[in-house]
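Q: My labmate handed me this sequence with no annotations at all. I'd like to see what the chain might look like in three dimensions before we decide whether it's worth expressing. Could you predict it?
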Amino acid sequence: MPTTEQNNSIELSEIVQKHQHFKIFKPYNCLSQFVQERMKNKKLLGDFYDFPDGTMAIGRLDHDSEGLLLLTTDGMMSHKIRDKSIEKEYYVQVDGEITEDAIFQLQKGVEITVSGIKYQTLPCKAFILEHEPKLPPRGRYIRDSRHGPTSWIAITICEGKKRQVRKMTAAVGFPTLRLVRVRIGSIHIDDMIAGDVITLYNLNNVFD
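A: Here is what I predict for the chain of 208 residues:
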């Protein structure tokens, strides 16, 4: 007969298997939540897929940001992925031709304001993308070259203050025009398009 320890292990395994996990390409002008805020009329996550009860977004992307968002029915998994040890990578289109000096400033950390308090961002990975990344259209026109040049950079951070990446690029003189998260840990956006939802399996193994 199974021992008490074996029974507990079986029960825990069954609980883990019952949880469901997803990744979505969150579109522009969509809220990272399931409940509509008062006086707002924006798309919600539940508009794109019939998620099971209890599904929650792991972290968030602002309504005007796009890309990879993970969802789960497991609160412990949500806590694990929001840890500062997990990298989040973004492709960022900025206003102007960004300089190597600005990239260096981003890498070593810049001063931003969070809830009215000055905050020094942690050192991060940042580099200029030589070519515009292959991403689906945003859904809302940004601008064309007649209004001045733009450039693309990649930024990887392990923290997530409100609108942090936008504040970082603004701090070095290059405001963000478009922001797309492309990676969380080892999970990538791949060739998803806006609104796509994919079920993930063995997420516990990915973030162990």
